[in-house]
Structure formats: C-alpha cells, structure tokens
Protein: Calcitonin gene-related peptide type 1 receptor-like
Organism: Limulus polyphemus
Amino acid sequence: MPKWAFTHEKTAFRYLGTVGQLQDPVSKTLMYPRPKNRSHPIFSTFKSNYFANLWISCCKAAMQCCHTMLSVSVRQSDENNCPRTWDGWQCWPDTAAGEVALVRCPDHIYFKNDPPQCPRYAIKTCGTNGTWLVTKLLKEWTDYSRCGIVDSLRKRLYFHIITFGVSISALIPSLVIFFTYKQLQVPRIAIHKNLFLSLVLNGVFVIVFRTTVISEETDARGDNENFFQQNGPGCKVLFVATKYFRMTSYMWMFCEGFYLHRLITATFTEQKSLVIFYAIGW
C-alpha cells in the first residue's frame, strides 16, 4: 500500500514475504496478518478506516487466490506456461507462452477515488520462454496503467475549461454592446445584462476552480497535501463563490421568464423599478 495511507511513514508495517509475516517498525517483532481481528496493531497505523478496509479487501483477495491455486490442477502438457501467481494486488492464472493475460482491476487498488463504473483491465505479459515479463530490477511486472481514470478525467477537465472559455469570449462582446448603446438602456436589456454578467462570473470562477483545485488534484501523487486537501479559507471561498454564481445564473434565467410573464399579463403597465429582480437574481 502507498506510504501516505498510514498516519506516518515510520509506522507502516513491513511485509516479509520469506516468512509471510508483518514486522512492527518500532519493536521489530513479527506477527501474522489478521485482517478479521480489528485489535491487530496494524489497524492503528492506517490514516482512516477507508485504507484499513482496502487492506482487508486485498488480504481476502490473496487468501482466495491461494484457494484457487490449490483447487485448480496444473496441466502437465503445458510445461511452457507462465505459472499462476499473486502479484501483491490480484491473482493471475496459468498463461500460455507469448500471450497476454487480462484480469479486471480490483477495487482495492483505488486509494484516492471510487472504482470506475465501467470495468478496466490490468495486463500481464507472458514471454515466449514461459516466464512473466520482468522489470530492470528483475521483478515480475504487471501493467496497471489501464486501471487509472486520471487521463480521462483530465481530458474532460480540459474540455470543460475550453468550452467555458468560448462562452466567456462570446458573452463579453454582448455586454460591451449592451453597455455602449443608449438605445438599449431599458429594463428588458438590464435583465439581459445581469444574466450575461452572472454567466461570465460563473464561467470565470469555474475555470479558476478547475485549474487551481481540480487540475492539481488530478496531478497529485498523494505524498503531499495539495490545495484541496489543505482545505484552507481560500479554497472554501473559491468553492462557495463558484456555487453561488452558478445559482445566480439560474435565478437570472428565472427573472427573464418572470419579466416576460409580467409583460404578457400587464401589457400596458410600465416597469418602474428592477429592485425585486436584483434581489431575486443576486
């Protein structure tokens, strides 16, 4: 598990694969992992129950993998197969030489967000000599890059920023025209101006929020607290302002409809004051 899943890096237990036990980093004592025993010392080292539950899920998957390996017999005719294995996160079956194994990404590998709704698959390559592909450090390697959703989220984020930018660039000339010509200084255009202004402010704050908070969140590696995780006053004010101007856009749309309704129901009544519209809209 990542080091930042624990309260402190020095409190993280070490797993000794040779003996199948956990080592307490302080006392150096060895103990077996007991995911069902909530009084186990390892549970006090996790930052929250969320990470503890991920560890429990991973332990259960490992035990299930052991049972599966023992229950499925090895075919003697396929001696050139890459052997079934547990890579630390999930189980991999016997795979023929030169083929690529696909296994659905397990839920317990998502440490910072919920698993994606659509299934994604990790891949593990079996070489032509019947051994799993290894890294430069001579360790078996599994490709989990396809499990991540950051790339798709980042593309969606850029698309949102660009579309809001296009919207703002179209609204500003309209506002300039509304404020420039005296013939347009009428109540109906005043409501238009406020609606357009709220849309501009909404777009500006959405762009600022997405570039400073969401963009940083997608680039975060987890070892340092980012702007969102710090939860400072600036982040809170920016978030509230973003939601506020989104609501004002809807309220000014309501004011547009309300004003049109009044024109229809009271055609010959002059609208002397817009105070009620400003109170509703803003």
User: Anything to note?
Assistant: The longest strand covers residues 100-104.
